[in-house]
């Protein structure tokens, strides 16, 4: 089981705003907050977001480079995926693969893909119909 995941962000304020509403939707609770970061917890696993030092901001994140490609979260249902999709649109958050949404991962796969403020790809996937 995953204990925690730590992600460095370019703008802690924007990231806090983005991740707070989304993780709250999934049942995560704010776990820690300090001058340079914050974390959200669900069960025994937590996600940590830390402000990147200025000297390391010269090369922006890109999911096709070595490292993290995307974060995928379990949704409760297809209805939750649809509700989150509408909230993403209301917030002006870029949804990926709209031409294939909600089956961008394949016909049997019901999900929404979008990006956080640093363009880290995020996925919310509904459980299988079966």
Task: Tell me the name of the CATH homologous superfamily of the largest domain.
Answer: 2,3-Dihydroxybiphenyl 1,2-Dioxygenase, domain 1
Number of helix segments? 2
Q: What is the approximate shape?
A: globular
Number of domains: 2
CATH fold name of the largest domain, please? 2,3-Dihydroxybiphenyl 1,2-Dioxygenase, domain 1
Strand order across the biggest sheet? 1-4-3-2
Number of beta-strand segments = 8
Helices and strands, in order, run as EHEEEEHEEE
In this structure, how is the largest beta sheet organized? 4 strands, mixed
> What would you call the structural class?
alpha/beta
How big a fraction of the residues is strand? 25-35%
CATH class of the largest domain: Alpha Beta
Query: What does the radius of gyration come to?
Result: 15 Å
CATH architecture of the largest domain: Roll
- The span between the termini is 25 Å
Please bin the fraction of helical residues: 10-25%
Question: What low-confidence regions span 5 or more consecutive residues with pLDDT below 50?
Answer: none
Provide mean pLDDT, rounded.
94
């Amino acid at each position: 089981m995953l204990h925690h995941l730590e992600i460095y962000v370019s703008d802690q304020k924007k990231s806090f705003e983005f991740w707070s509403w989304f993780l709250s939707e999934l049942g995560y609770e704010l776990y820690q907050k300090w001058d340079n970061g914050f974390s959200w917890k669900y069960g025994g696993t937590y996600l940590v977001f830390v402000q990147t030092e200025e000297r390391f901001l010269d090369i922006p994140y890109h999911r096709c480079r070595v490292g993290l490609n995307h974060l995928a979260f379990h949704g409760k249902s297809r209805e939750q995926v649809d509700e989150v999709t509408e909230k993403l649109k209301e917030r002006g958050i870029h949804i990926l693969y709209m031409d294939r949404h909600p089956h961008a991962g394949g016909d049997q796969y019901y999900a929404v893909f979008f990006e956080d403020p640093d363009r880290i790809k995020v996925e919310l996937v509904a459980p299988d119909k079966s």
